[in-house]
Amino acid sequence: MLGFVLRRFLSAIPTLFVVITLSFFLMRLAPGGPFDLERPLEAKIMENLQRAYGLDLPLHEQYLRYLGNLLRGDLGPSFFMRDFSVAQILMQGLPVSMALGGGAILLALVLGAGLGAFAAMRQNTGADHAVVGFATAGVTIPNFVVAPVLQIVFGLTLAWLPVGGWNNGALRNVILPVIVLALPQIAVVARMTRAAMIETLRADHIRTLRSLGLGGRHVAEHGLRAALLPVVSYLGPTAAALLTGSVVVETIFGLPGIGRYFVEGALNRDYTLVMGTVVVVAVFVLVFNLIVDILYALLDPRVRYE
Amino acid sequence: MSTAGNSLWADAARRLRRNRAATASLAMLILLALACVFGPMLVGNAYDRVYPDYVRVPPSLQAQPTADLIAPAVERIASRLRARATDISRDGDTLKIVLEAPRAIDERSLAFFERSDLFAAARVMSREDDGKRLTVEVPLERNYFFFGTDGNGRDLLARTLIAGRVSLAIGLLATFVAISIGVVYGAVAGFAGGRIDALMMRAVDVLYSLPFIFFVIMLVVFFGRNFVLMFIAVGAVEWLDMARIVRGQTLSLKRREFVAAAETLGVSATGILTRHIVPNTLGPVVVYTTLLVPKVILLESFLSFLGLGVQEPMTSWGVLIADGARNIQGNTHLLVFPAIFLTTTLFCLNFLGDGLRDALDPRDR
Lengths: 306, 365
Description:
A: MetI-like fold; B: MetI-like fold; two-stranded antiparallel ribbon; 62% helix
């Protein structure tokens, strides 16, 4: 087991390296720089700034330097938000994004798996069709439509919840963004659980359970366990994406997460901030893929650690 | 059991026709596409024409200007003529206005009526009191804004339809780019086999694990916001699945007898690929295409929503929805109409895709 985890961990490193290299050079190929203002700076000042941030070095040297700093855990200073290091900025935003994403994942897993199992146990009934209909709607309606609609209904018309803002993570402020983040995931999880469970309900071990006179709860339990495999492999990368923030949701609800730094950083040519965000997201993706592999092995004893 | 003409496609078409959700979706999509292509010519208002007097008009089936718009507009113009409108009466499509002023009214400034979006040129009926009292006849200029107007006074119906053109065009073209790359890449990898195949698919695996939406954003932000780049960016992201599917198909197809027969007859590799392999992968490709189009439209809307996509005055559903989301307070129509168009399209494409999958792959049923 330990060997398996270690091997998977090591195989993730080249991928991370490719991601970092690709983003670094892609970004530097782009026209414009972090210190290009509407009124150009004086040549001497520009030169000093470039030297202070090491931008005057040849590109490959900057790259090696960045990698070296990264290995020591140093993400560098932000070019645009002066006086802040990228690490500081990300550490401020990450808890916000993770709280929202974590809530959404939990909601998606519980409600999605629940709805999916519920529908599968009643295949081709009205309840089943209702769940499938909801799932299709959840997948097709984009979050930038759902979010403003929820804002109108719950924020303005009914005035139950605030329209936006973080407010130190007060529950009232978090409810709407978490729902918006979770809705499409609930829909996908419900669809997958339903499909997988219909499949497993025909399997031999379920038939054995039924022949022993064990119905309802037991069948649901064993069916759901097998049906969760595809859901787990779907939720891995999704969890990584959700925990590292959503540009749309953070923009619409005015939340201080890290999702928006990518767009902001890119627009400002804040090289280090963009790279920092890329690294964080990539690490999350790789870690969650690893978790999925381990969970897979735990859920299904047939999977070997080879 | 039917007899003649039971090709795979005829069979699939028959099964598709029996699927009511899929046929209804197909009909709806055709209707939407026709509306977006020809609609803008029939609406009567250009999508970029600004009507300064009709800002944020609510949607209505009635002809504009409505009664509650006329009085303030006349009031405004009268004050510019340094006069007062003492009597306004309406007879069908013409207004009869009595203007009174302490000094003679300059008839040339009646041009203010024509300059307004609400009225046509004014005609003087009678002059009294040395021109201090004028009776003018002003025809109303009829306009219809079924979906209302936006914050700049542009017709939302025309804009929604034009936006549909852009969104659908990007959806189809970017999908075409993605599918082309995917099919060629997959077929070549699968057919070549061995080390080339392993290498090519390894590259796909690596690309899969990149946070790709970030790369799209980065591409678009760094290299300008133009149409062509959007296709390339979206196409470059979405071809990976297609490549995997086609490779899998090719692997099983190339062991079939007709490929062996072609090989013994000395047909070149390109010949076998284009004549025997690719046409036989079309089933899954078609299904995947219908499911990819909504994904691409969504991606484009997402980019446009962030302000990275289509630029004003051109517009797409994503741009309109972003604008609507900013104006939800009091002007819900700006969000509702484009959102309805976008979600209807996505819904129909998904249903059609599901229907096609069932029709082309009966094993799945």
